[in-house]
Design goal:
By secondary structure, the chain is mainly alpha-helical. Helix content is 72%, strand content 0%. It has 29 helices and no strands. GO terms for molecular function: SNARE binding.
């Protein structure tokens, strides 16, 4: 069961090298021991121990046979690999021997290579001589005797040029050249042929011949330049002067083709491709000459590729954006922008689908055309904005530049994406230009809103003079169409502005509030003027009070609707200045209604106080009838306004009643008269209070309590207590003055000078301050000035 010492020593290196094997072996031993313990624990299983031993023996034999097979296969592969390595080593050794032999053979051939170099130089001289022999007769065949010297000088010039072309050439070559007969064609005949090719639009052939002549001229001028023969250079330039005209003629045709490129790539792309090929040839020649930087022939660099871009850009700009326009407003501008949109998309499609295939990739023609259209369109929009556009024109430009231009209907068209991308370019309209345009648009809208509001105001007051009441809503409240018209007009302008930018919407919103505030001011002025006219003839307008009530309802409707104008309805607070204008409007309409009530109450108030009134007349009853009639009219306004009108009417009635009482028309001469006066005051105040309570005005909101308090002063039996009673009175009504109290003491008729002095002294010692929210009652009541005694004696009158 255990391992011997030798087994442990043999297993030790393996265990150190393969710790996993040691772990696996321990696990196997543990499993075997567990199984064996289970077998010995249960004796009935000992019978199967022999079967288990045979099965394990067979499995070990199978594993050993598979291991032997695997090791054998591995050894055979290693043997084959070693054999291949031996063969490869032998081949490498053979190649090294061959390379050594080749190296020695190459070293032995050095002398032969020197002879080949001399032969190559001789061949180059021969080629140059042949070229000179062919070219010189053409050069000197010019028919113009003013250009070249006499024929007898030709051999000398020929010898000179040969010496230039072939340094070290023998002088006798010039003698041979003098006897060469000039072959055809001549240079001038070539010029004529090139011109014929240009006229026939055989541009490639013409350009090939033109390049040959230019190459001939440039070679000669280059050699003359190196020799420092400036006089000969001038002669050659004069002789080849016709090249300039040919170049200009070719260039003109090329630029005409480029100018018609958008049409040609659809109809005849061959002509356009020909022009591009010629331009590229010339560009390569320019690049080569600039790279050498030794001699730059006349007319170089031509820069035709740059000219190609310029002509293409000028064509795009001139065709769409330089045409005179007379449709700066209204539908004309919309048609113009729609035409631009259609044409630009169509032409960019042509560039993307056709022109790109006709030019080299490095032309980046689609990006160039896109940038050209973008810049030209930006400049064009600025030109349009210099005109005096109406609000519709300004809106169209803003919408088109900020939304339509980038939409799928134009630069974001599916046929143009993703190759066409204007996001990397500058904005079509700069932020400063957009802001200026928005301000111009706001001014135009402001003028339009002012005009509409003024027209609405005129129509509104025309309705006042119709022989019928103003319209009512479903609850019977008076109203007119003015709030709906005004708010709809302002809201529509704000909503339209939201289609452009948030900043424009905010500008229009601010303008709308300003115009609404100004409109309320004009409405108030018109109301005042109408009130003055009504004072002159109360029969006109017939339904004056009803229209004033409609004005109050309209003002309330406007106040409730202002918050809906704000782009963010959650924070639509009414500005303080606008709220003040609404409050002034409401106050003026309320004032005019109270003036009407006062005009009907004044004839009755003039009869107060009087002996007839003290005896029990129905003056207050008549006043109640007038008040009740007006209250029925006031019921045609909404609840907060109705309560306000009741409160103001009650304050007016209390004020007029107290004003009439304090005129000192009645002075009590006895206690009985004071009692009669107090009884009358109690009946009148109670009747008026019950009337207003019945109309819905709570007692805490009424000012008639001042009549009850004043009655208490008059009813006080002991004048010595007046100072305390007056102190309580002025504490409750701090706007009471000394004159008011003196008048009340006069009405009592039983107050001595000493008591009066005590009362007034007490008032001087207790000055009152009006508390916040106090509604003044006595401050608007003026009492008559007491008459001073007339005295003829000098000095004081007793």
């Amino acid at each position: 069961m255990g391992m011997s010492a030798e087994d442990e020593r043999a297993a030790s290196p393996r265990d150190e090298e393969w710790p996993e094997a040691e772990k696996a072996e321990k696990l196997a031993r543990g499993a075997a021991l567990k199984w064996a313990s289970g077998v010995f624990y249960r004796p009935e299983k000992l019978e199967g121990l022999g079967h288990y031993r045979r099965r394990e023996t067979q499995r070990n034999s199978s594993i050993q046979s598979r291991l032997k097979s695997t090791v054998q296969s591995y050894l055979e592969g290693v043997s084959a690999g070693l054999e291949q390595l031996r063969s490869a080593a032998q081949e490498v050794q053979s190649v090294c021997q061959d390379l050594g032999a080749a190296r020695w053979a190459l070293l032995d051939s050095t002398d032969h290579f020197q002879g080949l170099q001399q032969m190559r130089e001789l061949m180059e001289e021969h080629v140059q001589l042949a070229s000179v022999v062919q070219v010189l007769p053409q050069i000197f065949s010019g028919p113009d005797p003013m250009v070249f010297p006499e024929p007898q000088t030709f051999p000398l010039i020929i010898s000179l040029i040969i010496c230039i072309y072939i340094p070290g050439a023998n002088p006798f070559i010039s003698t041979l050249s003098a006897g060469i007969s000039p072959p055809s064609p001549t240079v001038h005949e070539v010029f004529s042929h090139i011109l014929q090719l240009l006229h026939g639009q055989h541009l490639l052939e013409a350009h090939v011949e033109l390049m040959m002549v230019e190459q001939l001229r440039d070679d000669i001028l280059s050699q003359l330049h190196l020799r420092g023969l400036s006089g000969a250079q001038a002669t050659m330039l004069s002789y080849f002067s016709g090249l300039q005209d040919l170049n200009e003629s070719l260039a003109k045709q090329l630029w005409d083709i480029v100018g018609s490129s958008l049409r040609l790539v659809r109809e005849d792309p061959v002509l356009f491709v020909t022009a591009v090929r010629i331009i590229e040839r010339e560009e390569k020649i320019d690049d080569a000459l600039l790279l050498e930087a030794t001699f730059l022939p006349p007319g170089r660099p031509k820069g035709w590729r740059q000219k190609f871009y310029q002509v293409l850009q000028d064509t795009i700009t001139g065709a769409r954006f330089h045409a005179p326009r007379t449709d700066a407003e209204g539908p004309g501008l919309a048609k113009h922008l729609a035409a631009l949109q259609k044409d630009i998309v169509s032409e960019l499609r042509v560039v993307k689908d056709l022109m790109v295939q006709c030019v080299p990739a490095h032309y980046n023609i689609l990006s160039v055309c896109t940038a050209t259209y973008h810049q030209a369109l930006s400049s064009h929009l600025q030109e349009i904005l210099r005109e005096d556009l109406d609000k519709q024109g300004l809106f169209l430009l803003l919408e088109w530049a900020l939304h339509v231009y980038h939409s799928p209907e134009m630069m974001g068209h599916p046929d143009l994406l993703p190759e066409v991308d204007v996001s990397a370019l500058d904005p079509l309209m700069s932020s400063e230009l957009v802001d200026q345009t928005e301000k111009r648009y706001v001014m135009k809208v402001k003028a339009s809103v002012f005009e509409w509001m003024q027209r609405t105001l005129e129509v509104e007051f025309k309705e006042w003079f119709r022989e019928e009441e103003p319209e009512t809503d479903h609850q019977g409240f008076f109203q007119s169409a003015l709030p709906a018209i005004v708010m709809q007009m302002l809201n529509e302008n704000i909503q339209v502005a939201s289609l452009i930018t948030d900043s424009l919407q905010q500008k229009i919103y601010n303008m709308a509030l300003e115009e609404l505030e100004a409109f309320l001011g004009r409405l108030r002025e018109a109301l005042v003027q109408c009130g003055k006219e009504h004072q002159q003839d109360r029969a006109v307008p017939k339904y004056y009070i009803s229209h004033l009530l409609a004005v109050l309802n309209n003002n309330l409707a406007l106040s409730n609707s202002v918050s809906s104008l704000h782009p963010d309805t959650a924070c639509g607070e009414v500005p303080a200045s606008l709220q003040a204008a609404l409050d002034r409007m409401q106050k003026k309409a309320t004032q005019l209604l109270l003036e009407e009530l006062l005009l009907d109450l004044q004839p009755l108030c003039l009869q107060l106080p009087s002996r007839k009134w003290l005896s029990g007349s129905q003056l207050v009853g008549s006043m109640c009838e007038v008040i009740d009639k007006y209250a029925k009219d006031f019921s045609r306004v909404r609840s907060p306004l109705f309560t306000l009108l009741l409160a103001e009417s009650e304050l007016l009635v209390a004020n007029q009643y107290l004003r009439a009482l304090l005129q000192r028309k009645v002075v009590c001469k006895s206690r009985e008269e004071r009692g009669q006066l107090c009884h009358r005051l109690l009946q009148d105040a109670t009747q008026l209070r019950e009337l207003f309570c019945g109309l819905g005005l709570e007692r805490s909101q009424q000012s008639l309590e001042a009549v009850f308090a004043l009655r208490e002063l008059i009813c006080l039996k002991d004048p010595a207590l007046l100072s305390l009673e007056v102190l309580g009175f002025i504490t409750k009504y701090p706007d009471v003055s000394d004159e008011h109290v003196s008048t009340l003491l006069d009405i009592r008729g039983d107050v001595s000078k000493e008591v009066r002095h005590v009362v007034l002294e007490m008032m001087a010692q207790h000055p009152q301050v009006l508390p916040e929210g106090y509604r003044p009652i006595f401050s608007t009541i003026l009492v008559p000035v007491p008459e001073l005694p007339f005295c003829l004696r000098k000095g004081k009158c007793a």
